[in-house]
Amino acid sequence: MDIDAWVWWLIGAVGLGIPLVLTAMPEFGMFSVGAVAGAVTAALGFGIVPQVLVFVVVSVALIAVVRPIAARHRDGRPQHASGIDALKGRQAVVLERVDVGGGGRIKLAGEIWSARALDSGQTFEPGDQVDVVEIDGATAVVM
Fold it and tell me: Boundaries of each NfeD-like C-terminal domain copy (predicted)?
């Protein structure tokens, strides 16, 4: 029993699709699309040289064009901070005197937090605006 060339290309496409699913490497998907293009070329009756050329050209073109676009989208995606990381850098209002010893209170993101000053010489009075530098346990370190 003789299997047509286009069937072999489709088997190759599926074979290249499996590592795509297992490793999440998009390059395998691009090679798989190239193999499908090779299958179409074979189904149209072209010889092995045009089939391989179509496979190579389509695969390389996809890698050359799609990969940079995907990388640009991945790198351009804003990273959203959550939890205490989202509180760093925010402004708060002093409710009770804050100094380096702690014991003070601030209103941060609508909640009351204990706070201490970052530097030993700093003191903040009620009503002052402060910047949250870090969160140390349940205490906001401010400046």
Answer: 85-142
Name the helix (H) or strand (E) containing 141: strand 139-142
From CA 61, how far away is CA 59, in angstroms rounded?
Answer: 5
Global pTM value:
0.52
Nearest-angstrom CA–CA distance, 9 and 53: 13
Q: What is the CATH number of the domain that holds 101?
A: 2.40.50.140
Range of the domain at 138: 83-142
Confidence check: pLDDT of 84 > 70: yes
- Round to whole Å and give the CA distance between 63 and 107: 51
Are 43 and 3 spatial neighbours (Cβ–Cβ below 8 Å)?
no
